[in-house]
Amino acid sequence: MPHITQDSGLQTVLTTFETSPATCVDLMAELGAAYSDFISRQPGFVGAALHVNDARTRVANYSQWRNRDDFKNMLKTDEMQHRNQRIHALCRGFEPVMYEVFAIHEN
């Protein structure tokens, strides 16, 4: 499970997907299968969370990796490239962006 902390040294990746109510459930199922069957078993994977908006038109994926190279190496695998083709068919587009945690605000 992801745990957001500042200065953890982990690589954070936020990926947003533009989808439709008609394909959102299928997209979430495909993403869930990708995580449970493949991504979570890759070197350097720490955790992830999937989020969907009320209108079922946007999905946000928060993932953490040990480092940038671990994430990039996972994307380069034949398995993930094949899965990304199926995922892309269920949405208008998606974009993974790498971030570092800048600040944490808690109650």
Structure, explained:
Helix 1 (21-37) packs antiparallel against helix 3 (78-89). With 107 residues, the protein is an alpha+beta fold. The mean pLDDT is 94. The protein has one domain: Alpha-Beta Plaits (2-Layer Sandwich), CATH 3.30.70. The radius of gyration is 14 Å and the shape is globular. The longest helix is centred in the first third of the chain and has 17 residues, at 21-37. It is 36% helix and 29% strand.
Rg over CA atoms, rounded to whole Å, is 14 Å
Number of strands: 4
Residues in β-strands, percent: 25-35%
Number of helical elements: 3
Helices and strands, in order, run as EHEEHHE
Short description:
The protein is α+β, with helices and mostly antiparallel strands and 107 residues long. 36% of the residues lie in helices and 29% in strands. The protein has 3 helices and 4 strands, in the order βαββααβ.
Task: Outline the secondary-structure elements.
Elements: E1 11-18, H1 21-37, E2 45-52, E3 58-65, H2 68-76, H3 78-89, E4 93-99
Antiparallel strand pairs: 1-3, 1-4, 2-3
Helix pairs in contact: 1-3
For this entry, give a set of tags:
single chain, 107 residues, alpha+beta, Alpha-Beta Plaits, four-stranded antiparallel β-sheet, 3 helices
